[in-house]
């Protein structure tokens, strides 16, 4: 670890002009730094507490994915480790260009994963680690500003060439272009562009060790395969992160079972995770993720949610579009279910309004736990895509709180139930003149 500390110490001083700088590789390094900063923030006491008390206890995750705390935390842990692994790949590649560090990072990281190096003495909340995170954030922000300045300069230069022909406002464009060039030079000086490989890798390498130690510490009790980390008493974790006594994800399991019985069939499934697969590939064969329908079903659920809360009648076109989004198997299931609910006798009875109110209450409960999982599915995908394009250091949603690991049969049953309920509500409300007589069919 001596080489790592020395590299980090040099990060605070001026870089040597004789050492090579990142230059164009600054943008790749900035993405890795951004990923590390995001991971660090997501592993704080408060964020881990929010995970346990928020997504881990949400009705949707419990109904659709699992009520097993260890299983869910195992998924969250694997996602954190994979995210860290993406950053490690970049750090390893950049470390080969270092003078002081050389290729020692790869060896040290391998030894750390094997438990050869003791990382228990790394304090996640120490002042030095906090300063390193702040420094990386500044580098990321400056590099992001450099990227924006380069884009703006390119646009000005293209416009300037076009304006040279008619000789219109050429002085204005010259001034703007010169100013933008100065901006580019300024951000190059203060961003990762002008930082040495040793400085950048030193910062990231130490953060990698800090994050790995933190993951092993907070997820260790639930993931036996992680490296065992010894925590001195003076550095003991806050009780809300790692309580001395065991705690249960579902305080009142009977309450959850009662809710589940109202929402449709809740089947149990084997939770044996396939080995040597990435997290996104590890979804079991009976899940929405394995069927490749997570985003598709999330969009259908969100459309149904909008229809449910809409104060106006839903157009025939909107209903038809939603119906056409359904797979053939769901279309058949929806037709069968509608035949049992939408009889002519019931439609014209005085009990119509009461039935409509009953459906409204039932759908409100189902959508209340179903829609958040659908929204998290879209948010996870959007954040995953933006992470490839932008430098964002904010904590993201986790795959375990999306539809990816939801049982396919449960989701399809819930979607059919929601669409049948919407059809009944509109029919019982006396809106038949605005419908096509088939509702969702």
TrEMBL record:
Residues 287-379 form the DUF668 domain. The lineage of its organism: Eukaryota, Viridiplantae, Streptophyta, Embryophyta, Tracheophyta. GO terms for biological process: positive regulation of growth. This is DUF668 domain-containing protein. Residues 24-80 form the DUF3475 domain. It comes from the Eukaryota. InterPro entries: DUF3475, DUF668.
